[in-house]
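Hi F.,

I've been meaning to write this up properly since the lab meeting, where we talked about keeping a consistent format for the predictions we share between groups. The idea is simple: the sequence comes first, exactly as it goes in, then the structure tokens exactly as they come out, then a line or two of notes. No screenshots and no reformatting. I'm using this chain as the first example so we have something concrete to point to.
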Amino acid sequence: MNNKIPAVEKTLLLLQALSRKKYSQAELSRELKITMSTTYRILSTLRGHDWVRKDEDGNYALSNGLLPLLTRFRSEMERLEHAKKIVSRISREHRMACKLSIRRDHEQLTLFRAEPPGPVALTGQTGSTFPLIEGSVGAALLCTETDETLRNLVKECDADIPEKKDPKLLFKGVAEIREKGYALNLRKNRWNIAAMSVPLYGEDGRTADAALTVIGSAEDFAGPKAEKLANILRNAIEECQSGESSNQETTL
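Output, unedited:
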């Protein structure tokens, strides 16, 4: 079932295009495959709210009317920027791959990653996307969702992944997050690697805005190593939420 509103979808595409550079009406119409009349109406509406302005050369650009909306996310962006530094530090100090992921619609997006020195990379490149329900990252990003929402997300996923074949894997990971604060996936994935993820909650404490993950071999998480890594991630999350740098190192 498609619940999207075409006019809103076109407006968002237009705003995304203008976030990259200036466009004329004709260029927007051609690039976004929207009729000239619809493009004109969208631009006129956005100009009326000062979200878009028209320059003397006839090109359109984003305008100051968007600032009140963007200001609300400033602290969140600063927190994510701080988290990127923590990702690099964890990878450097503990010689493990580490990444920061966020939710984007029905996908998980790798916002930033760091790899220890070595010939083989364990994480996807920055900007890589994966099915939202997949792995420990999916469990961390979805840990505040209802069981009904989780079932619907599994149903809507069309990727050939373990969580699609066996939804209990997703529910198990979410249950781990709620009970222990972290989810550990020991090679039950497409890449036969092990990963541990923890959620980074929003200011309201009710939604998971991001997931912090360390990736390695099953041996990296064997025995007491798992709890030590969990403590490293917990401390990192506390640091992200407080915005303060920690000078303490946790040894494995």
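Notes:
The domain at 74-242 is CATH 3.30.450.40 (Beta-Lactamase).
Residues 245-252 have pLDDT under 50 and may be disordered.

If this format works for you, I'll send the rest the same way.

G.
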